[in-house]
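Quick one, probably user error.
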């Protein structure tokens, strides 16, 4: 009986000691490390939650000997793009496209990393299949981390051009250049642009615009693969707002708009016109005017082409336009095309990539979008109608009638429902590649007259 009491007494004492250790040990650790590891980091270290729920929350960790902060923050909420920002001692290892933010070893943090695709079509599997992965990592500093081969005090933005749409101007602007403008503008040209999956011809084509975004030469990550670059701040991925445009309310201070991007595009390519022609009210006879409004018709050779281009051009000339017909090839001389577009007051084209040239129009000009069959009105407005308004341009939508589409030739003329059924395949490649347009000149003249009215305002 006496021995049992001793055992119980010993058990109680051991329990009290363990309880005291559990209470005092963390407190003592906090006191000892109060100048090196803040409470927020301790909460992260002792978190029992899943790693992913901690890894990409905002983390602010003081350096062991200095007052510097490391911020690692990722936003995965956007439906089109993921963006991570890392600050502190950040190293870009080009050989395996790895971005490492180094933490002082005394922080005792385990390495945390994730792979991401720095492209603004994160839900498009076809696009992402040809986009190079970037490994983003937060890791304690160690002798094994590659040393810096080049250091910069400026920040950097890492992005991909890949995806299979390179050279398609709509996708070049919507998926890469406009998101890059949104992401990089806050750095006021003092930023390094690190591009992956970028064909050399693509970089050459848009080099003037890239120079407008950055005062530093673009770093081609695929062709400078032996270097380790070090920055105080790296943004991985591009912010996306909407098709071919910008929601200025979402930008830093609301200072960056689609109109600002258009100004940058005009300035980058040395375009002189900042205002479209203004017609005087009451002077309806533009044919005798010393300066006739210039109308550019974007010609397509294969899909969604105008089959009666000559007749359309004659009708426009009768209304008082000086008519020009141009083509927008994938690898065309963009500088020359930009100058041509900027010299015009009205841009006409069937829904498609050629209309992306509207960024070079002078403010006050008008875009006339010809929308083929297929219920494309909403998409056409989103892709080019809204951006036109955001850039200070007038906009006219012309939706073709059944008789103006070559789809009508595939079905009896007395069965319009059959044509509409065929057109319901609008978003399929067979539809987009299989429809041309023969405009009813009398009907289309109404749209061209409306464009003239907009030039009066």
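Nope, works fine. Designed sequence:
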């Amino acid at each position: 009986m006496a021995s049992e009491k001793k055992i119980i007494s010993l058990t109680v004492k051991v329990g009290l000691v363990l309880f005291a250790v559990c209470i005092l040990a963390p407190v003592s650790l906090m006191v000892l490390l109060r100048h090196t590891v803040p409470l927020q980091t301790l909460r992260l270290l002792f978190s029992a939650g899943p790693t992913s729920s901690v890894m990409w929350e905002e983390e602010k960790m003081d350096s062991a000997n200095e007052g510097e902060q490391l911020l690692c923050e990722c936003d995965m909420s956007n439906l089109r793009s993921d963006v991570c920002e890392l600050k502190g001692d950040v190293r870009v290892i080009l050989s395996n496209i790895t971005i490492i933010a180094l933490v002082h070893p005394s922080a005792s943090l385990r390495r945390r990393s994730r792979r991401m695709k720095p492209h603004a079509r994160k839900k498009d599997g076809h696009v992402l299949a040809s986009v190079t992965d970037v490994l983003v990592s937060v890791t304690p500093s160690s002798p094994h981390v590659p040393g810096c081969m080049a250091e910069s005090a400026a920040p950097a933005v890492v992005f991909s051009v890949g995806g299979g749409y390179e050279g398609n101007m709509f996708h070049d602007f919507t998926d890469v250049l406009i998101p890059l403008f949104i992401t990089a503008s806050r750095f006021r040209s003092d930023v390094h642009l690190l591009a992956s999956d970028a064909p050399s011809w693509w970089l050459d084509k848009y080099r003037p615009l890239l120079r407008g975004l950055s005062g530093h030469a673009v770093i081609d990550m695929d062709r400078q693969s032996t270097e380790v670059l070090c920055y105080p701040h790296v943004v991985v991925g591009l912010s996306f707002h909407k098709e071919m445009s910008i929601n200025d309310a979402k930008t830093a201070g609301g200072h960056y708009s689609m109109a600002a991007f258009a100004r940058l595009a005009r300035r980058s390519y040395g375009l002189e016109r900042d205002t479209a022609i203004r017609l005087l009210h009451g002077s309806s006879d533009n044919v005798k005017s010393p300066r006739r409004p210039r109308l550019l018709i974007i010609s397509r050779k294969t899909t969604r082409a105008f089959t009666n281009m000559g007749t359309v051009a004659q009708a426009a000339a009768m209304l008082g336009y000086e008519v020009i017909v141009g083509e927008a090839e994938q690898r065309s001389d963009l500088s020359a095309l930009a100058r041509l577009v900027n010299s015009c007051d009205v841009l006409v084209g069937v829904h498609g990539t050629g209309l992306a040239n509207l960024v070079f129009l002078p403010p006050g000009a008008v875009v006339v979008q010809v929308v083929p069959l297929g219920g494309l009105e909403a998409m056409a407005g989103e892709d080019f109608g809204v951006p036109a308004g955001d850039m200070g341009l007038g906009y006219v939508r012309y939706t073709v009638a059944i008789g103006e589409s070559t789809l009508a030739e595939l079905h009896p003329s007395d069965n319009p429902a059959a044509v509409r059924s065929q057109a319901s395949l609008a978003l399929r490649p067979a539809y987009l590649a299989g429809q041309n347009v023969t405009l009813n000149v009398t009907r289309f003249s109404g749209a061209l007259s409306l464009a003239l009215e907009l030039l009066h305002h």
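Residues 26-70 have pLDDT under 50 and may be disordered.
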